[in-house]
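re: ur question from yesterday

yeah so i grabbed the chain u mentioned. its 262 aa long if i counted rite. heres the sequnce exactly as i have it in my notes:
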Amino acid sequence: MKNRLKVYVFLCLLLSAGSILAQQELYQKQLFIRGNDTLKYRIMYPKDFSESKQYPLLLFLHGAGERGSDNTSQLVHGSALFANEKNREDFPAIVIFPQCPKESYWANADVDRSSYPISLKFPKDAAPTPAMDMVLKLMDEFTIKNFVKKEQVYVGGLSMGGMGTFEILSRRPDMFAGAIAICGGGNTELAQNYATKVPMWIFHGANDDVVRPQLSVDMVSAILKYGGKPNFNLYAKDNHNSWDSTFAEPGLLTWLFSQSKL
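ran it thru and got these structure tokens back, copy pasting raw so excuse formatting
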């Protein structure tokens, strides 16, 4: 019986590893180089991609734990959702997962990890971080390509990437048709830049002991204050990994890809 169990576990691990490898193959490794700066990213094109057609474009920003230089770790959370066979059929889109270097951060934030939840402050008028600057340049170049539907460009992110989502919206409010921000936070004053321009769905876990849920509550309040009408899910039992509940939301992609600048 024990031997059968070991074989079963081994087969499960083998299948899981095969699934991960297959998923990684869908996201092609790319380098975006400008001057002395390089941004590593993965990109997945729709099935039967043709430059003569047009497709929605989705940018997804990973969390702090996936920073690095392997151009793979950023796929840990979220990439499977968009690579799902049915989702690729129902929502054909170009999906980009950039990787933030270990020493950088998506959002311009003062981060104090001496205690938890971590302390975060978001300056209002600071220049973008090197990583965010490269993402902005990448998106500026992608969104002028003929095969990208300019009216259907989206952004999402979790944790540090959720913070990056709020920031990139403040810097390019006219670029995006919709956004999702998971367990993030941002400068509440800058919400005025995009509150009425970009429909948002914001998520957080009420038990989050890494990034305080109050940060998302504050962003929702700020967006409301400036005339926006965001969706907001506060998961009562979730800790920091509220992305698991978010990605399980049955209407998530339907909502996101229904948003349009037209």
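noticed a couple things. The domain at 28-258 is CATH 3.40.50.1820 (Rossmann fold). also The longest helix spans residues 2-26.
anyway ttyl
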